[in-house]
TrEMBL record:
GO-annotated cellular components: cytoplasm
Name of the protein in question: Nucleotide-binding domain-containing protein
PANTHER family (UniProt xref): D-AMINO ACID OXIDASE (PTHR11530), D-ASPARTATE OXIDASE (PTHR11530:SF11)
Entry keywords, A to Z: FAD, Flavoprotein, Oxidoreductase
Family classification: Belongs to the DAMOX/DASOX family.
Organism of origin: Choiromyces venosus 120613-1
Positions bound to D-dopa: 233, 292, 323
Amino acid sequence: MTTKKPEIVVLGAGVIGLQTALTLLEAGHSVTIIAKFWPGEEHVEYTSSKYHWRTHAGPDDLQGQRFDRETYEHWLELVKKDEDTGLVLIPSTYIWDSPTPETANSGASIWWSTLVPTFTPLTHPHPLLPEGAHFGISYQSFCLNPQTYLAYLLSRCTDHGVKTHTYEVDSLAGVFEYAPGAAGVVNCTGLGAIELVDPVEAEKLFPTRGQTILVSGEAEMARLRVGEGYISYVIRRPGAGTILGGCKVEGDWNEEVDEELSKEIMERCKILAPELLVNGEFEIISQQVGRRPSRRGGPRIEVEWKEMEGQQRFICHHYGHSGAG
Ligand SMILES: Cc1cc2nc3c(=O)[nH]c(=O)nc-3n(C[C@H](O)[C@H](O)[C@H](O)COP(=O)(O)OP(=O)(O)OC[C@H]3O[C@@H](n4cnc5c(N)ncnc54)[C@H](O)[C@@H]3O)c2cc1C
């Protein structure tokens, strides 16, 4: 006799909510996803509609390293399948303008140096190391088209019989109106959690503003350069063009495109991706602002139990992934 696994609600249909729902479905749970925004939609409050595998985990962040390692290994398997995932594994570079602990020992102390294939230190003179740069590495990294990837995750959930509701809830208990028999809810609301958690917790949440430009042509490589007061990146968006970035401004809610910043981003990216220039300029398709869902102390992955709608149910919080969704 097989035991039926409990029904679970996933609140949120970003990359975190959809992957959580798929994992639960594959484990045999029935799942209802409730969300305001869904794959195919673009909105500043829907961060996943904006992104490449680049670890954000530092040398002491063992949890972040585990997440990034598992994602990389999962995608290595996924990219081998002949499915429309929007995912590609391509050559990449990471360049530092000044010495950091990571650039010491030719990058050998970087925790992910043994994870990614073809990890190679770059020192001058090297055609991939721009003038003025201190040190770099080349390696294989993933770029993805988020809209294709989100649609892929949702279609996999649909194959497993997921139920969906489009709704903006004003409390976590509110989800049980749609799934009265559910044992609990996984809270994957990104920055939306600010409105749903207690005030002390909400104080820890803030946006880290990003601004990007989608341009024509697919860059040969993914490239990232870190300098004094700036971060510059070129990330192929398979089937759609290339994303140029960027910025990281903590606590900035501004959703308007800053044209001056766009000019600075494009000037820096001209050195990184000259193959995309037409008569010396990029062909702009669109510009966008995104909010990384940041949290002081790192992501919250924690279970609590509460009486909700007359029953003891669990809330599994799963938000605050900032720039490493
Ligand atoms: C410019 C930029 C570049 C980035 N680059 C990278 C990168 O290179 N690599 C990387 O790993 N990450 C990157 N990120 C970060 C990554 O995009 C995020 O960490 C990730 O998308 C967060 O996903 P999420 O599912 O937690 O949140 P979201 O995608 O914001 O999803 C939240 C979901 O919850 C729903 N929701 C919220 N509140 C409610 C409510 N009250 N009722 C109903 N539904 C609700 C929303 O509608 C949505 O469906 C980048 C982000 C930005 C902005």
